[in-house]
Amino acid sequence: MSKLVELRDVTKIYEIGDEIRVKALQGASLTVDKREMVSIMGPSGCGKSTLLNMIGGLDNPTSGQVIIDGVDITNMNEGELASFRGERIGFIFQSYNLVPTLTALENVELPMIFAEKYSTKEISERAADMLGLVGLGERLHHRPNQLSGGQQQRVAIARALANEPSIIIADEPTGNIDRETGLKIIRFFQHLNKTLGQTFILVTHDPDIARVSQRILHMLDGKITSRPARTSIRPSKQILLEEQRQLMLAELKWLENSLARLEESKANLTPVLYDQSKTEYARRLDSLDQAILALNNSELMKK
């Protein structure tokens, strides 16, 4: 199989204040082949989310090399990364990030409108097909508040699939739903991997969910291993808070990118669709901005 993801000796160091340096990744190397489904496990603060941010083009490494689908994205600027993410990467977040005033169909249509590679008819048909694929063919015109948590996550999966991404990245995708529903979602990932050849890279704390994957990797102290470590040093509170901050920053970048593409596609949207989408993206952005600001100003981050 051809390599789809290749990380070569990647490091990532975050500067927190004047004196604290968090080594989130320490010489991480990884390859993922096309059509593979890989789970990444490890304790909180070990660097899992930072690793996904590197693969998803949400952050640049301090050193090392990141090659995705044959493209070296190591030194891309934010504009180049945003374009790359929109074309090649599908994201699934714990919080779903659905626009609550839009139907399931409209939520799945949005990224295809942004991409401008399908006709209006193709967008509508493909969105319906994707929702049918995830078992929501009878829920096309339901809004998120009319769907269960598991159903909302399936809409998010359909949205992630919409533009035929090279990779779908999922950071704790079952974190906001009950375990039984979570296992169903992961088995559905497995089904899509086998039937469509879709590549998945996901982070989870649950061994049963990880076992559905073809391969399980483990992380400890910013390094990737094939086996779980027998012992682990408990990360400091600063490291745990930095991991939480990086999760929020990743979602923030996704939302900023979505808002920018919304503006670029304004001429192709109805006024109602544009206004409702912009309002929700802006609301979620403001909420994340406030949460990140509060975290940055916390005493633990300053110590």
Percent helix:
40-55%
The largest β sheet comes out as:
6 strands, mixed
N- to C-terminal distance: 47 Å
* Beta-strand proportion: 15-25%
Order of helices and strands: EEEHEEHEHHHEHEHEEHHH
Average pLDDT figure: 84
- CATH architect. name: 3-Layer(aba) Sandwich
Number of strands: 10
Q: CATH topology, which one?
A: Rossmann fold
CATH superfamily: P-loop containing nucleotide triphosphate hydrolases
| Number of separate helices | 10
Estimated radius of gyration = 19 Å
Shape: globular
Q: Order of strands across the biggest sheet?
A: 6-7-8-3-9-10
Could you name the CATH class? Alpha Beta
Describe, in plain words, how this protein is organized in 3D:
- With 303 residues, this protein is an alpha/beta fold.
- It has a single domain (3-302), classed as P-loop containing nucleotide triphosphate hydrolases (Rossmann fold).
- Helix content is 46%, strand content 21%.
- It has helices spanning 48-55, 78-88, 104-115, 120-133, 149-161, 179-196, 207-210, 237-264, 271-296, 299-302, and strands spanning 3-16, 20-33, 37-41, 63-68, 71-72, 89-92, 167-171, 199-203, 215-220, 223-225.
- The strands form two sheets. Strands 6-7-8-3-9-10 form a six-stranded mixed beta sheet, sandwiched between helices. Strands 2-1-4-5 form a four-stranded antiparallel beta sheet, covered by helices on one side.
- β4 and β5 (71-72) form a beta hairpin.
- The chain is globular, with a radius of gyration of 19 Å.
- 40% of the residues are buried.
